Amino acid sequence: KYVVITNNLEENISLNVTYRIYSRWFGKDTTTSKVFDVEAGVKESFLVYENDGCGHSHCSVSIKNYEQLN
Fold first, then answer.
1. What is the pLDDT of residues 37-65, one digit of tens each?
2. CA 42 to CA 51: how far, in whole Å?
3. Residue partners of 50: CB distance under 8 A and separation at least 6
4. What is the value of pTM for the model shown?
C-alpha cells in the first residue's frame, strides 16, 4: 500500500503526512506520521505498508492530515 503525493508547485516540498494503515484481516490498525520529500512538478508513490496478503484481503491506507514543512 502506498501514499501518493503530487507536487504541482515549481519548488521541492517536504510534507509531514499523518496516515492510518488498517486491515481487520491482518490485525493492523496504526496511525503514523512521516516526512515525505517530493520534487517540483512530480507525482511520487511511497510504500508505507507491505503485505502480500493485501492482494486478496482488504488493507487500506488513508491520509488523515498533512502539513507542508518548507
1. 999 999 999 999 988 888 888 899 999 99
2. 26
3. 1
4. 0.84
Grid coordinates representing 21 are 494503515
DSSP for the chain, written as a single string: -EEEEE--SSS-EEEEEEEEEEETTTTEEEEEEEEEEE-TT-EEEEE----GGGGTS--EEEEEEEEE--
Q: Is the dihedral of CA 48, 53, 60, 39 positive or negative?
A: positive
Which residues are paired to 34 by β-bridges?
Answer: 17
Taking 90 as the threshold, does the pLDDT of residue 13 lie above it?
Answer: yes
